[in-house]
C-alpha cells in the first residue's frame, strides 16, 4: 500500500465535515502512519501496545492542536489564570478519557473493530500514571478535568516522578513493594520542553552587597549547587469544549555549570556521579499518605517544583503584562496542602532579591496571589521542617521566613498584648526541643484565602488546628467541599449506567450533575428499576471475572458486594471491617443452619511501606480470607477478597460493581473522602460515620438512604476526655470478645501465634481510633444493611436516589466555587475552528 509513503497524518479534528466512513478510514490511516513513521514498525509486526501508542499519538495530536489555539486565546484575552500547585496528580489513564472528551470514543471503537482491534484491549495497555498517594492527588486530577470543562485558564504544576506510587504485591498475605516503572515503554502523553528549562539553586550561603547606583543593601544567595528543571507538558482536555489546559510536570537534571568544574578538574566520574544526585530529586514519589517524613530529599522535591513553577509563572506574566506589580490580578496560585507552601518564601525572595521590590509591596503581592487548601486535621500529618535542615538547603528562605515571622508576630502582639502562649502557637517557628518551621503557619500567613475540604472539616479546622489563625482572620476562611469529575467516575467507568441515564433524562448531567435529580421522576417506573438493577448485575459479573483472573477467587455475583477501597490507615478502620467479617464467620460456625444474606467483602488499598500496623492489617485481611473462603461451613455465603495494587484503573472497575460503600472512619478524622462520592454516584449505598463529606452526602441523599452508625466527633472527644476503656467493650460484648479471642487463638496465623498481637494490643490498650467503642453499632447497622438488601426492590430505589441526589459532589461545582470566591477567574472559551 502507499499509505506508508506519506508523512504522519494527524486525525482531522471535529468541525471538518467528514462522513462516518471517511472518518473511519482516516483514523485507520493515521494509525498505520504512526506505526510506521513514529514507531518504526510494520503493521504486520505491531502488537497491542504498539497500537495503543499509535492511538495515543493520534489523540495527542488533536489535543495539541487545540492546546495551541487555547494558549493563543488566553494570551489575547489577557486572562487571569489559576496555577494549581500540587506535589501529586493522580491522573489515571489518559487514552479513554481523551477519546471521550474529544467525542471520538464510539467512532474510534468502530474504526478499530474494522481492523480487528478491540478498543478495550488497547486501553488496558496504557501504564497507570500513579503520581500520587490517594485522595489528595486524585482530587488534583479531578480539578484539572473540571477546570478545563469550565473553560477556566489553568495550569497544574507538579513533579514528574520517574517512579510513581509503588506496585503492591501480596506474598504469603503480606504487602511487598515493587518499584513502579511506569515510564519504561515511554509516555506518549508528555512533551518535554527543554526550551522552557529553568535553573534552581540549593544550599550555600547568603551575603549582603550594594547594587550599582543604589544606596540600599541587597541580599544575594550564593548556592552550593544548581539543578535544571525541564518541564514535561501533558495536555488536559475538558468535556465538550475546545479548551485544552496544561499539566506541567518538572523533571530534575544536572546543571551544566555545576559539573563543568568537576570535568575541568579531571574528575569525570565524580562529575557524572553528581549528575545522578541532581536527578534523584524527581526520582520517586514519597509513598506516605497522612504522615510526613522529614527527609531532606522530600524538602528538595517541594522546593524544586515550586521554584520551577514560580519562575515559569513569572516568565509568562512578564511576557503578557510587562511588570510583576499586577501579578495578583492575573495569577491565582493555589497550594494543595502545605507541600508547596515554600512558594510563599520563594515568591518573596524572587520579588525582593531578583526584582527589587520593597518588602511591603512584595508581601502584598504574595498574599493576594496565594490560596491555601488544608486536607487534614491529624496533627502528625502537619509538615514541620527542622530549622537546621532548612537553613542548610535554603539559607535565604530561612532568613525570609524569620523576617515574615518577625513582622507577623509584631502585628499579633498589638492585637493580643498579653498573650505569649498565643504568640508561641502562631509563630512560624516551633520552639522547645528541635526548632522547626511550621509549613501550615507559613501557608496561612502567606495566603489571602484558607479553605477546608468538607463542611465538618472546615468547622474543625476553625475550632482546632487553625483556631488561632481563624480568630485572627475569620474572613480568610471558607469551606470548599470536595467533588469528583462525573466524566471519569460515571461516563467513562460505567458506560452502561451512563447510557441508561442519558436515555432516561438526556445527557445534560455530564456537565450539570444536578440534572440527575430528574431520575427521581422515574423511581416508580418498574422497567427503569429493572434496567438499573440489570446493569449493576452485569458490572458485578464483570468484576467477578476480574477478581477470578487476578486473585483466583470465585465470588458469587448475586451476593452483596461490600467494598472498602482506600489507603490502609488505622483511622479509616479497615480493622473494624475485618472484625465484622470474623463476627459473621463466627456466627456461621456456631449456627451453620441460620439464614444469612450472602456477602462478598472486598478490600483494596496500599499501606505506607513504613507503617507496620497498616501492613499487619493487610496481612490480617488476607489471613481471614484464607480461612473463610476455604471453610465448607461457609458454603460460599461469605467471601473475602483483598485486591492487590489498588489504583485509579482498578477503581474504575470497582465503583460500578459495588453495592455497599464502607466509609467508616473515626468521626473527626477523615477530612472529606472522595471515594464516598464515587460509590454513591454509581448507585452504591453507604454505611458510614458522621465524618468528612459523609455528613453532606447523607444530607443530600436523605437519612433514609444512608446507613449511619457510630459516635459523633463530639462523642469521640467526650469519650476520650473521660478516659476511654476498651476492655469494658470486650467484657460486655460476647461477640466482640469471641472475635478478638479467635484472632488471639492463632486461627488466622498458623505457626505464628503472636503475629497479630500488636493489633489486639492496640485495640485493648488504648484503641485510639475507637474501634471497640463503635463496634457494636457497626455490627448492628450491618444487620440492617443485610435486611435491606434482601428487599431488592427497596435497595434499588435507594440506590437510584443516591445517584439522583449526588449532584452537589461534582468537581464542576467545587471548581466553580473556588473560581468565584477565591481565584476570581472567569471562563475564557476557545472558539471552534
Ligand atoms: C491525602 O490524600 C489527604 C490528606 C492529606 O493530608 C494527605 C494526603 Cl496524601 C486526603 C484526605 O485524607 C481525604 O480525606 C481527602 O478527601 C483528600 O485528601 C482530598 O481532600
TrEMBL record:
Any single Pfam family the record assigns to this protein: Phosphorylase
Broad class of enzyme this protein falls into: transferase
Catalytic activity as recorded in UniProt: [(1->4)-alpha-D-glucosyl](n) + phosphate = [(1->4)-alpha-D-glucosyl](n-1) + alpha-D-glucose 1-phosphate
The keyword Oxidoreductase is annotated on this UniProt entry: no
Keywords, ordered alphabetically: Carbohydrate metabolism, Glycosyltransferase, Pyridoxal phosphate, Transferase
Keyword Glycosyltransferase: yes
Top-level taxon of origin: Bacteria
Reported cofactor(s): pyridoxal 5'-phosphate
E.C. number(s) listed in UniProt: 2.4.1.1
Similarity comment: family membership: Belongs to the glycogen phosphorylase family.
PANTHER family: GLYCOGEN PHOSPHORYLASE, GLYCOGEN PHOSPHORYLASE, LIVER FORM
Described purpose of this protein according to its UniProt entry: Allosteric enzyme that catalyzes the rate-limiting step in glycogen catabolism, the phosphorolytic cleavage of glycogen to produce glucose-1-phosphate, and plays a central role in maintaining cellular and organismal glucose homeostasis. Phosphorylase is an important allosteric enzyme in carbohydrate metabolism. Enzymes from different sources differ in their regulatory mechanisms and in their natural substrates. However, all known phosphorylases share catalytic and structural properties.
Protein name: Alpha-1,4 glucan phosphorylase
Amino acid at each position: 500500500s502507499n499509505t506508508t509513503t506519506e508523512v504522519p497524518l494527524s486525525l482531522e479534528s471535529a468541525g471538518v465535515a467528514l462522513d462516518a466512513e471517511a472518518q473511519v478510514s482516516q483514523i485507520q490511516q493515521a494509525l498505520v502512519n504512526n506505526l510506521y513513521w513514529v514507531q518504526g514498525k510494520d503493521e504486520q509486526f505491531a502488537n497491542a501496545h504498539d497500537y495503543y501508542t499509535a492511538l495515543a499519538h493520534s489523540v495527542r495530536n488533536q489535543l495539541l492542536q487545540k492546546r495551541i489555539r487555547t494558549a493563543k486565546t488566553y494570551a489575547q484575552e489577557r486572562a487571569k489564570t489559576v496555577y494549581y500547585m500540587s506535589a501529586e496528580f493522580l491522573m489515571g489513564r489518559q487514552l479513554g478519557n481523551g477519546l471521550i472528551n474529544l467525542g471520538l470514543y464510539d467512532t474510534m471503537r468502530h474504526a478499530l473493530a474494522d481492523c480487528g482491534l478491540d478498543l478495550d484491549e488497547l486501553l488496558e495497555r496504557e501504564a497507570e500514571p500513579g503520581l500520587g498517594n490517594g485522595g489528595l492527588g486524585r482530587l488534583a486530577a479531578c480539578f484539572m478535568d473540571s477546570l478545563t470543562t469550565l473553560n477556566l485558564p489553568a495550569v497544574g504544576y507538579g513533579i514528574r516522578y520517574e517512579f510513581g506510587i509503588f506496585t503492591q504485591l501480596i506474598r504469603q498475605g503480606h504487602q511487598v513493594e515493587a518499584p513502579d516503572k511506569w515510564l519504561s515503554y515511554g509516555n506518549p502523553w508528555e512533551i518535554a520542553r527543554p526550551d522552557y528549562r529553568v535553573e534552581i539553586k540549593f544550599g550555600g550561603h547568603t551575603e549582603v552587597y550594594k547594587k550599582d547606583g543604589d544606596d540600599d543593601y541587597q541580599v544575594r544567595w550564593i548556592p552550593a549547587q544548581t539543578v535544571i528543571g525541564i518541564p514535561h507538558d501533558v495536555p488536559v482536555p475538558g468535556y465538550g469544549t475546545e479548551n485544552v489546559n496544561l499539566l506541567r510536570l518538572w523533571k530534575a537534571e544536572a546543571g551544566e555549570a555545576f559539573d563543568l568544574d568537576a570535568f575541568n578538574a579531571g574528575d569525570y566520574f565524580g562529575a557524572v556521579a553528581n549528575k545522578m544526585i541532581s536527578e534523584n530529586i524527581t526520582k520517586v514519589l514519597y509513598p506516605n499518605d497522612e504522615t510526613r517524613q522529614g527527609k531532606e530529599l522530600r524538602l528538595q522535591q517541594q522546593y524544586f517544583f515550586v521554584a520551577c513553577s514560580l519562575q515559569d509563572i513569572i516568565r509568562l506574566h512578564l511576557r503578557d503584562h510587562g511588570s510583576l506589580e499586577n501579578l495578583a490580578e492575573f495569577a491565582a496560585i493555589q497550594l494543595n496542602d502545605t507541600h508547596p507552601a515554600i512558594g510563599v518564601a520563594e515568591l518573596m525572595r524572587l520579588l525582593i532579591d531578583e526584582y527589587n521590590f520593597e518588602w511591603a509591596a512584595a508581601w502584598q503581592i504574595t498574599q493576594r496571589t496565594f490560596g491555601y487548601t488544608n486536607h487534614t486535621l491529624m496533627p502528625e500529618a502537619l509538615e514541620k521542617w527542622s530549622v537546621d535542615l532548612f537553613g542548610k538547603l535554603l539559607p535565604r528562605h530561612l532568613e525570609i521566613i524569620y523576617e515574615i515571622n518577625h513582622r507577623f508576630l509584631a502585628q499579633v502582639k498589638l492585637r493580643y498584648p498579653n498573650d505569649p502562649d498565643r504568640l508561641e502557637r502562631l509563630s512560624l517557628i516551633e520552639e522547645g526541643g528541635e526548632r522547626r518551621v511550621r509549613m501550615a503557619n507559613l501557608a496561612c500567613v502567606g495566603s489571602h484565602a484558607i479553605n477546608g475540604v468538607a463542611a465538618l472539616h472546615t468547622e474543625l479546622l476553625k475550632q482546632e488546628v487553625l483556631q488561632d489563625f481563624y480568630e485572627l482572620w475569620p474572613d480568610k476562611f471558607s469551606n470548599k467541599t470536595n467533588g469528583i469529575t462525573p466524566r471519569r467516575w460515571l461516563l467513562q467507568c460505567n458506560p452502561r449506567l451512563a447510557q441508561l441515564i442519558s436515555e432516561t433524562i438526556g445527557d445534560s448531567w455530564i456537565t450539570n450533575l444536578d440534572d440527575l435529580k430528574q431520575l427521581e421522576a422515574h423511581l416508580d417506573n418498574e422497567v427503569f428499576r429493572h434496567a438499573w438493577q440489570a446493569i449493576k448485575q452485569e458490572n458485578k459479573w464483570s468484576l467477578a471475572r476480574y477478581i477470578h483472573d487476578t486473585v483466583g477467587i470465585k465470588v458469587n455475583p448475586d451476593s452483596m458486594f461490600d467494598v472498602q477501597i482506600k489507603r490502609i490507615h488505622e483511622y479509616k478502620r479497615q480493622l473494624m471491617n475485618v472484625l465484622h467479617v470474623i463476627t459473621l464467620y463466627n456466627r456461621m460456625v456456631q449456627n451453620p443452619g441460620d439464614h444469612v444474606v450472602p456477602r462478598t467483602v472486598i478490600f483494596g488499598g496500599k499501606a505506607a511501606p513504613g507503617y507496620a500496623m497498616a501492613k499487619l492489617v493487610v496481612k490480617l485481611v488476607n489471613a481471614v480470607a484464607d480461612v473463610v473462603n476455604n471453610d465448607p461451613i461457609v458454603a460460599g455465603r461469605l467471601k473475602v477478597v483483598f485486591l492487590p495494587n489498588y489504583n485509579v484503573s482498578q477503581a474504575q472497575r470497582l465503583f460500578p460493581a459495588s453495592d455497599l460503600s464502607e466509609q467508616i472512619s473515626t468521626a473527626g478524622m477523615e477530612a472529606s473522602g472522595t471515594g464516598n462520592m464515587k460509590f454513591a454516584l454509581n448507585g452504591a449505598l453507604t454505611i458510614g460515620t458522621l465524618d468528612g463529606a459523609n455528613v453532606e452526602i447523607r444530607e443530600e441523599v436523605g437519612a433514609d438512604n444512608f446507613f449511619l452508625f457510630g459516635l459523633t466527633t463530639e462523642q469521640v472527644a467526650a469519650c476520650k476526655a473521660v478516659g476511654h476503656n476498651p476492655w469494658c467493650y470486650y467484657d460486655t460484648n460476647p461477640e466482640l470478645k469471641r472475635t478478638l479471642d479467635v484472632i488471639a487463638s492463632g486461627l488466622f496465623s498458623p505457626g505464628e501465634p503472636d503475629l497479630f498481637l500488636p493489633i489486639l494490643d492496640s485495640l485493648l490498650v488504648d484503641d485510639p481510633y475507637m474501634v471497640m467503642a463503635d463496634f457494636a453499632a457497626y455490627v448492628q447497622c450491618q444487620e440492617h444493611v443485610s435486611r435491606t438488601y434482601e428487599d431488592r426492590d427497596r435497595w434499588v430505589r435507594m440506590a437510584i436516589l443516591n445517584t439522583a441526589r449526588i449532584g452537589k459532589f461534582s468537581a464542576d461545582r467545587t471548581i466553580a466555587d473556588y473560581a468565584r470566591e477565591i481565584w476570581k477567574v472567569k471562563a475564557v472559551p476557545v472558539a471552534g475552528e
